[in-house]
Automatic annotation (TrEMBL):
ABC transporter domain span: 2-198
Organism: Ruthia magnifica subsp. Calyptogena magnifica
Lineage: Bacteria, Pseudomonadati, Pseudomonadota, Gammaproteobacteria, Candidatus Pseudothioglobaceae
Pfam families in the cross-refs: ABC_tran
Keyword RNA-binding: no
UniProt xrefs under NCBIfam families: ccmA, PRK13538.1
Keywords associated with the record: ATP-binding, Cytochrome c-type biogenesis, Membrane, Nucleotide-binding, Translocase, Transport
Any one GO molecular function term: transmembrane transporter activity
Protein name stated in the entry: Heme exporter protein CcmA
GO biological process terms on file: cytochrome complex assembly
Length: 198
């Protein structure tokens, strides 16, 4: 269970949210909604341990956000690309999944193929389109062992086929006991999603 307890977040003079408390259980899909600047990215970054909250706590099965156990269980997909343009798609994926020693190269190549990047393994990421770069990162998400997926605008730059793939994978991940929190300004066909409005 992911527990958010009495969270407050201030940016400059702007109080984005306060006394925010909720719980997400295995199998839950939570869509975080709100206008531009309402604090969706700030909240996801706090849940990823990348931003520090003003007040309150974040726990996964009683493990605090900065703990090693918590950090091993999350995958954060942010706005900015974490890919190096000077490395190939496969090399970037190796780097992204570097902490997961159980993943071998055959699995990485299969993950790229599954996301529509068969034949792109040795292509430098600098040469890939925005949607193709996004797919390389999503390949990393799909083969990660992370239980909690924190996805900030996961559909950005993806075509309709890419959106369908990620929606299918989110549903499958949560059916198998995972958790997913995501933001989007697009409509989404995800099943049984709960909504948190900021
Ligand atoms: N490092 C920072 N310093 C000061 N203000 C910040 C900082 N980061 C974000 N903000 C402000 O906090 C507010 C919330 O930003 P955030 O990115 O969380 O919003 P959002 O809901 O994700 O927006 P969008 O829908 O546009 O992606 C914005 O007004 C932004 O300008």
């Amino acid at each position: 269970m992911l527990k958010i307890d009495n969270l407050s977040c201030q940016k400059g003079y702007n109080l984005l949210f306060k006394h925010l408390s909720f719980e997400i259980n295995s199998g839950d899909i939570l869509r975080i909604t709100g206008t531009n600047g309402s604090g969706k990215t700030s909240l996801l970054k706090i849940l990823a341990g990348l931003n520090v909250q003003e007040q309150g706590g974040v726990f996964l099965d009683n493990h605090a956000v900065k703990s090693e156990i918590y950090q091993k269980e999350i995958f954060y997909l942010g706005h900015l690309s974490v890919l190096s343009g000077e490395l190939s798609a496969l090399e970037n994926l190796e780097f992204l999944t570097g902490l997961n020693k159980s993943t071998n190269q055959v699995q990485l190549i299969k993950a790229l193929s599954n996301i529509g990047l068969k034949g792109y393994e040795d292509e430098y990421c600098a040469k890939l389109s925005a949607g193709e770069k996004r797919r390389v990162i999503l390949a990393g998400l799909f083969i990660s062992n992370a239980k909690v997926w924190l996805l900030d605008e996961p559909f950005t730059a993806l075509d309709s086929n890419g959106v369908a793939i990620i929606e299918h994978r989110i549903n499958k991940h949560c059916e198998q006991g995972g958790l997913c929190l995501f933001t989007t300004h697009q409509s989404s066909a995800l099943l049984n999603q709960k909504v948190l409005a900021l």
